[in-house]
Design brief:
With 579 residues, the protein is α/β, with parallel strands linked by helices. It is 35% helix and 19% strand. The longest helix is centred in the middle third of the chain and has 19 residues. The chain is elongated, with a radius of gyration of 30 Å. The C terminus is likely disordered.
Length: 579
């Protein structure tokens, strides 16, 4: 379910002439039966609302007084969201014969044409108050208080993101809260300005429009309307000078490509788009590649396993993002840990719609090709997921069947696309050429008749320090470490990071250094294990200098590494012969 909450205005929307009819009340009950929740957002004062709408208990929260008061019907609990109006302000309005005047817990309301007297009084007293208009009504509230701020307060109590809310209204004071909602709807009788900015306009007016919206919500979670709306889409790049967008809901994305081909750049751009739109994400990081990712909190690390309970408590706040680093877990323990966490995250999604997106880096480590998920482990449709892997052959077929969007990077894009279609038993889509220029990736929508398209990815906005700390001074696993062995393999000196690589390289004999240099071992390790194409290319240039002495090539390799990787103050050298 994408939409967990319906937030509705009262007068002119849910109610006509102040009353809600029986059919509309029944429609509200049908919505609640689906597990969705209701919030009322109204300019009315609470006592009069309680008098005219006895079914208020259908609503989990009521935002009253245009955002000034929060009310929980089940507990009859009130919460002021701003200060009450001062006596001096009310007396000044009385002296200017402003009336009729209605005074709530926070709001002060009158009618046009008294707005000039109200504004002059606010100015004369130097008050931080604002005037909001609503079909002839003039409402005075503290600055920053409106229906949107009130709805935010209600959603905070519920643990719900605005991205999981549909809002419906009709008047000027509804603009703010409708803009906040993922889907904004105007009833047929709404003011033209409200209709102009709404994502959808109902055919029916007043409560008939609300009932129409509820019918669509219950039937298909507004699937048809979602296809029309692009306000929240994620920007990936351009193709033929047109922006290429990814829907923020319903996609299962696979990013494939060899090491250092640009997978992380494409993934980072998707995550940046999620952050720009304020969608919550949880990124699973088996290798510690995202330890400095901006806008997210990392759990776990090389010396500590990620705490499951803390991650889940942290993500209860819709405004947070998490990176779950698995490097502190033994490799065999990572898949079972991930599957436990995945189950709990999917349960959270069923309750709240969040985390909106799951990003699984090196997904083949978590759900490899030989993995057969037990019944119930994965939902039939695994949506809002990004899977990142080197090659589709490495990934579980159960996952690949659920993928509907393929992003391919690297020189062998056609071969990768062919492998994917073979696994999912679909014909290879036809296209003129799959040769990719630097910065390009191939985009294919599995269910679309459109052939794959080349997309020039937008550059990442954040400065990524991906791999820097891990590869400079962290602990790479044995299979990804560099081993100085020499031509006769008499040594076995393990360098599990770049700094140890430089220190050991300075200490080994010239014959061993030259052996690995001329074999191309340094550039190969930089490319395949360190995943730094620039570093690998620079090392290849050094390796090609056949006339350079061992001292000169050591200095050049060191300068190349230290250009991008910080050298710690001191590192202990390993004992010769250790591994």
């Amino acid at each position: 379910m994408r939409y967990h909450v319906l937030a509705t205005d009262y007068d002119g929307t849910l109610a006509q002439n102040g009353r809600v009819d029986v059919a509309t009340v029944e429609s509200l009950r049908q919505l609640l039966a689906t597990g969705r929740r209701l919030v009322m957002v109204t300019g009315r004062e609470l006592p009069e609302l309680l008098d005219i709408f006895p079914e208020i208990d259908l609503f989990e929260w009521v935002v009253a007084e245009n955002g000034g008061l929060l009310y929980r019907p089940s507990a009859k609990e009130e919460k002021l969201l701003a200060e009450s109006p001062s006596d001096s302000f009310l007396q000044a309005l009385g002296k200017k014969n402003v009336g009729p005047l209605s005074v709530g817990r926070v709001v002060v309301a009158t009618w046009e044409p008294h707005q000039d007297s109200v504004i002059n009084t606010i100015h004369d007293q130097g008050l931080e108050l604002q005037v909001i208009f609503n079909k002839g009504a003039v409402m005075i509230l503290p600055a920053g208080i409106n229906k949107a701020s009130g709805l935010i307060a209600a959603l905070k109590e519920m643990g719900i993101s605005p991205h999981n809310v549909v809002g419906i209204g009709d008047a000027e004071n509804d603009h703010a809260f409708l803009r906040l909602c993922e889907m904004s709807v105007a009833v047929a009788n709404a003011l033209p300005a409200v209709k102009e900015t709404a994502d959808f306009i109902t055919a029916g007016d007043h409560s008939q429009g609300v009932c129409q919206l509820i019918e669509e919500l219950v039937a298909n979670d507004l699937t048809a309307l979602n296809l029309q709306q692009q306000r929240h889409h994620l920007v990936l790049g351009t193709s033929d000078d047109q922006e290429v967008l990814l829907s923020p809901y319903g996609q299962s994305v696979l990013i494939c490509g060899p090491s250092a081909s640009g997978k992380s750049t494409v993934a980072t751009r998707i995550v940046e788009s999620l952050q720009e739109q304020q969608y919550q994400f949880c990124l699973i990081d088996p290798e510690g590649d995202y330890d400095e990712f901006e806008g997210a909190v990392m759990f776990g690390g090389p010396k500590a396993a990620p705490p499951e309970d803390e991650i889940l408590r942290f993500l209860e706040d819709p405004n947070t993002n998490a990176v779950v680093c698995l490097t502190g877990l033994p490799i065999p323990d990572r898949p079972p840990f991930f599957l436990r966490l995945l189950s709990q995250l999917l349960q959270m999604r069923s309750r709240t719609g969040r985390p909106h997106w799951l990003i699984l880096d090196e997904a083949h480590h978590l759900m490899p090709a030989e993995w057969l998920p037990p019944d119930g482990t994965l939902p039939k449709e695994l949506t809002n997921v990004v899977l990142i892997t080197v090659h589709p052959d490495l990934l579980s077929g159960a996952l690949l069947e659920r993928v509907d969007t393929l992003l391919v990077v690297g020189a062998n894009a056609h071969e990768t696309l062919t492998s994917f279609t073979r696994i999912i038993k679909q014909p290879v889509p036809q296209m003129d050429s799959t040769a990719l220029e630097p910065g390009e990736f191939l985009l294919w929508l599995k269910e679309s008749a459109t052939p794959p398209q080349k997309v020039l990815g937008h550059p990442c906005k954040m400065v990524r320090h991906r791999h820097r700390r891990k590869y400079a001074e962290g602990q790479l696993p044995p299979e990804r470490s560099f081993y100085f062995r020499g031509p006769q393999h008499k040594m076995n000196l393990r360098a599990q990071n770049l700094m140890l690589f430089l220190q050991i390289g300075d200490g080994v004999d010239d014959e061993t250094w030259q052996y690995h240099l001329h074999q191309g071992d340094f550039s190969r390790w930089f490319r395949e294990a360190i995943k730094d194409e620039n570093l690998a290319s620079a090392a290849e240039r050094v390796e090609s200098l056949t006339q350079a002495t061992p001292k000169e090539s050591r200095a050049l390799i060191r300068a190349t590494v230290e250009q991008d990787y910080t050298v710690p103050a001191s590192l202990p050298l390993p004992v010769p012969g250790s591994s």
